[in-house]
Sequence to fold (163 residues):
Amino acid sequence: MLGIHDLALFIVSGLLLNMMPGPDSLLIMLHSGSQGWRAGSVAALGIGTGTMVHVLAAALGLSALLSTSAELFTVIKLMGALYLVYLGLSMFWQGAKAPSATNAAVALPVLSYGRIFRQGLLTNVLNPKVALFFLAFVPQFIAPDAPQKALAFILLGCIFNLN
Fold:
């Protein structure tokens, strides 16, 4: 099918890779813990949308440009780092503005679902390692002589995202 091989291995590998913690997992846990499962689900949807941006970019060859340009990789990496610093500082500032609690628990500010979705999207899109991951991982499961490599790449990316 579209030159895809070892689909079961791809699915199992994708599940194992998705279990590894990273910035995306931490964002989901943060919002789930502070605002409940709905907020965590919205963050996961934003991250999933960001993943699809990477899948489409890789299928269209844009991620290959990122992997060959050290300058572009550095710019994206710095943008991602600055965004994570911005998220941390904004939580700190909003926490400082919140009324002090009588107990040791610190309440995080309640964010709108739209803002949580954007945080998930940007956390994923601005992570250049995700783009490089798709360039390194997905092509292993597409035959070199596949007639529609881009479509196979998108299909595998969708499967990975569903995992």
